[in-house]
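Dear Dr. L.,

I hope this message finds you well. Following up on our conversation about the binding site, I have prepared a predicted three-dimensional model of the protein together with NAP. For your records, I am including the exact sequence and ligand specification that went into the calculation, followed by the structure tokens. Please feel free to forward this to your student if that is useful.
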Amino acid sequence: MAIATINPTTGDLVQDFSPYTEAEVDERISEAHAAYLALKATDFAIRAAWMHQAASLLEAEVESTAAMLVLEIGKPIVQARAEVLKCARSMRFYADNAEAFLAETELADPDSVGAKRAGTRYQPLGVVLAVMPWNFPLWQVVRFAAPALMAGNAGLLKHASNVPQTALYLDALFERAGFTPGSFRTLLIPSSGVERVLRDSRVVAATLTGSEPAGRSVATIAGSEVKHVVLELGGSDPFIVMPSADLDAAVGKAVESRTINNGQSCINAKRVIVHAGIYDEFLEKFTAAMKALVMGDPMNESTQLGPLATEAGRRDLHALVSDARENGAVIAAGGEPLDGPGWFYPATVIAGVTPAMRLYSEEAFGPSASVFRVTDREEALRLANDTTFGLSSAVWTRDPDEEEFFIDGLEAGAVVVNGISTSYPQLPFGGVKNSGVGRELAGAGIREFCNLKSVWRA
Ligand code: NAP
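The resulting structure of the complex is given below.
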């Protein structure tokens, strides 16, 4: 895949970039390694001051940075601004909390291990490779970089090939904020260049956010090198609506959850599972609301749905929708790509999806919702869990017993009750099953790339 900015709204090539040579990559790995040695000798207060400064830069540059995200992936401008500001908030969160998350511990009864003092200490691991996707081009990177740098690690970023401008912006951001040059470096390389970097002895661990095949590949290489890996992979999240739910609120939030980021989020509500008692009313209202979304130029403040980020992404989504249609599903809204420039695909609602259709088991990465009818909570749970994914999930109910039933039973890294899945720096984020390994965010996220050292003193 060429390393290039292609405007998804027009399909025009904006700028392409030459991949770095092996020598240029090696130079950046050396720089990152030297920066790690310097960073680990700094204390939390210094790193926190730099991290706050990086947040201030983002806040000051919110308009130009948001416009860059729109240009590279077609995200509606209102959502792009929100992404930039969320990154700034999360940087400040780690600046303020990293030291407490990584505080030393002391056993209250060191006698029990025959010591005078015993406990634990967290230390940085070294240079960590981050392979990142385009869908939240700033946020996916920052949620790795902010904790990793605050812990004293250095980062190397292999970003998705269609967001090179964002990748280079991030390369400069941390250094501009005061971090030691090389603390965070972008490598403009194709995915075929990842293996060489990951096998380099100066690179000690990796994190990948992206598709399952990419995750498997990076995990295989990391495994053969005995290097720690965190994987944040795909999802096909259920959004369950039970009869006791506030129906209108559930409809509104299902639409938002399915179409945020033009339907290209790992935690979009991709499978909407509705109790038979309210199914017809829900489907009618949901379909009407999906049809009413304003689709258009993502730079317009009123646009709710922009184009898909890539031509291939639109082709893949349409193949899934067409397969469902050919196998007997009912397309209640959308279902055909728009004519004209750009990679627009309308909000799509599909009923009657069966296990014979690809949509039942594969992730739809675009604004297409599959709506299922179930007769009771047991069937809802069975269907929700009948997937190889396990990222997040949502349930709408006002029955406390039902709430507990789903919180306990859903096989996912998160359960949201009467709301929509999102990520917060305060809460861990990650999946089970084929959705991933390890956690990002909160205390768990910063500790992923640390050596938890036990210390025993006689
Ligand atoms: P992708 O094709 O897997 O790409 C992600 C990154 O991996 C890109 O930098 C890509 O580089 C690289 N890559 C692809 N194949 C690779 C390989 N074999 N070895 C090493 N690197 C490889 O995924 P995407 O289409 O950008 O993103 C969509 C997927 O990401 C969806 O499945 C979505 O659910 C998932 N996602 C998960 C989370 C989460 O937190 N769990 C968050 C966001 C997205 P190139 O661009 O150069 O190919």
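In brief: The chain has two domains: 4-232+433-457, 237-417.

With kind regards,
A. P.
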